[in-house]
Amino acid sequence: MGVVIEREVWEPKPISYVFLFASCFASISLRPFRSRSGGGASTAPFLRFQRKFLLLYSLASVMEGLESVFGEYEYAHYGIKGEQMAMCLAAGAAAALFVGPFLGILSDVKGPRKACLLFCILHLLLGVLKSISRHPSVWVASVCLSLASSVFSFCFETWMVTEHEKQGHRQDCLSDTFWLMTFFESASLVGSQGLANLLFKDFDKGFFSPSAPAALLAIISILYIRKEWNGCQQQSVIGSYRKSFSAHVLNDRRIWLLSWSQSSIHFSMAVFWILWAPTIVADGREVHLSRLYPCFIGSRMLGSTAFPWFFGGISWLHNEEYLTAAYVVAGLSLLIVSYDYQEIGVLVMLFCVYHACVGFILPSLARLRTMYVPNELRGGMISFSLAPASAAVLLALIQGGYRQNLANAMIMALAALGLLAAAGCIHLLTLWRKQPRPNWHKP
């Protein structure tokens, strides 16, 4: 029996947006406030610190969203074909693979504040390049954007945790900041899409490009960083850092399990953003893709609001056990998509489920990093754990996008299997946590 191609343009019903907004509002309003009791003297300073950081993090998230909101459309405008587009993205993945880990080490050695400044400078250079040139080098833009995304993955979290400890705030307050980071990042991505659609006129008119407001936000962020966090940060000696990194990260099996879990979720997110549109419009189906984007990001926001519920006092299981279930559900949702043809509504629902799991997984992993990774090694650990994801994305782009040796369904299936393997890693981590910690480090 042949597949019937839908001729009418498919779009989500408006009630979907209302449901996601109401669910997020209800989840935040009714969530457990376990940390409200005690420590009242430190509550006001912590809230001020948290609000300042979340403001900066939101500005950085808007920059990330503005530079990637048009995606393939921007490449196509400059005459880039599908194979060339894949190679441009592959160049960015290669930069993240070979340069990203060293940026994480530099962040730990020189201080995460300088890494945050580097992130802003990269976006400023990219914005200036696109604003002054009618036909900017897409290769340079891809590399700059990829390096900025690599730095974004660790610099702000590392800086926040370091400043949190330096200012003497309670350790249990970190979890609130972790899920709020995911929530505000998602909200900023939706806002960046709306801002780009509002300001965008024509790629040939440079200063109407989304890169211009991204450059402006980069300047504002640099000034904000220098004003609010201008204190001297302790720097590490590279020799002692190498010994500490080898002892606490490279020779600890728990960190290897955590690293695989981080790498798998980032690889699946990269695969999703590359393949979700071709998957939905397969067989000539017509869809308002721009109206699906808020559904996915809204689902991630909803998933992040679930984190304090499972981490709060009402939970009778370890956070890792819920995290294992989230990995399984996320993996199965992508596996179903890769296995068989689905109706558009089913695909959108599965992708929303996946993003809800991502919203819960990201702050959970940040909490586990706080438990197992010293703060002075956090940037290097995150950047090294993302290297396998960058290598897998590079392989998928070359073999799938350029050489056409891997089907899209196979790439998505590999991402799903990686998530299921990560569920096994988190399960092992839970079992080992209940046992006395063995001496895995070298003396």
TrEMBL record:
Keyword ATP-binding belongs to the record: no
Pfam families referenced in this protein's UniProt entry, alphabetically: MFS_5 (PF05631)
PROSITE patterns given in the database record: PROKAR_LIPOPROTEIN
InterPro entries in UniProt: MFS_trans_sf, MOT2/MFSD5
Alphabetical keyword list: Membrane, Transmembrane, Transmembrane helix
GO cellular component, one term: membrane
Highest taxon listed in the record's lineage: Eukaryota
GO molecular function, one term: molybdate ion transmembrane transporter activity
Record has ATP-binding as a keyword: no
Membrane-crossing residue ranges in chain numbering: 15-33, 54-72, 84-103, 138-156, 206-225, 255-276, 291-310, 322-339, 345-365, 377-398, 410-432
This protein's name: Molybdate-anion transporter-like
Organism of provenance: Phoenix dactylifera
